[in-house]
Amino acid sequence: MALNNSYDARLVQQETAVGAGIQVLLLALLGTAIGMGPAGWLTGLAFTIATWAVLSRALHRSRLRSFGPANRVTLGRAILVGGVTALVADSFQDTPPVSLLVGLTAVALVLDGVDGKVARRTGTSTALGARFDMEVDAFLILVLSVYVSMAMGPWVLLIGGMRYVFVAAARVWPWLNAALPPSTARKTVAALQGVLLLVAGADLLPHPVNVGVVALALGLLLWSFGRDVLWLWHTSRLRPASRTEQPVRELVAG
User: Fold this and answer.
1) DSSP characters for 207-250?
2) H/E run at residue 177
3) Closest by CA position to 82, among listed 162, 130, 33, 22
4) Quick one: which of 60, 138, 143, 183 could link to 251 by a disulfide (CB 3.0–4.6 Å)?
5) Alpha-carbon span 182 to 172, nearest angstrom
């Protein structure tokens, strides 16, 4: 049995290596297409290495016998997010084709609704898969916030940084670690963040309208986080939070 587990572990780890290889290939294609500069290349490669290292470690700790179809979809989204990250980093030195950035982002957002359905239909839902999905979503929102902030100002970074602030705050105030009840409103608001940032980033609308779109996204996110924080605080007054609970605040629904 130990031999089988070891063999399965190698197969699972191989999938992350293949993902890293595809990510490098995508960066090479982008570099050839737009003449990507050092900032884009270095950022894209850093994303590739970090994703491979973190995911490999998480897979080793979870001891999954199979990577699973849903995780493959999420890994595909992560590869696209890596491409978007490289383009955004490159935009600090040169203006990348907006259509290319929008196209990669749009596909990543569409696939966000696929991996969860695949996991449920194939019976392969796992805690690791849900966390992987959440982290990819959160990072995409952060990158889009950085891109849009270059035209609108640093206040846009609040959208991408809010989830990370929440996680950091949970280390200081343990009551924020309590599990939140399912919420359609939370998932809807979370899913809208990427769409609204993409609309603003595409720059197809007048600047004042784009500012209004991003302000709407921030307002909805503040309302969603505020409501959850109030619920967690009220719940913590009723019963102490368990030290074993983990932060589960969703950013984007899968």
Assistant:
1) HHHHHHHHHHHHHHHHHHHHHHHHHHHHHHHHSPPPTT------
2) none
3) 22
4) 138
5) 24
pTM comes to 0.87
Look-up of token digits 């970074």? 157
pLDDT at 93 over 50: yes
Distance between CA atoms of residues 129 and 71, nearest Å = 6
Chain centre distance of CA 187: 14
The Cα–Cα gap between 39 and 36 comes to 8
Per-residue model confidence as pLDDT tens digits over 15-68: 888 999 999 999 999 999 888 999 999 999 999 999 999 998 888 888 777 788
Q: What is the pLDDT of residues 179-210, one digit of tens each?
A: 889 889 998 999 999 999 999 999 999 999 99
For the chain, the farthest-separated pair of C-alpha atoms sits apart, in whole angstroms, at 63
CA distances from 250 to 15, 55, 125, 163, 180 (A): 26, 19, 16, 8, 9
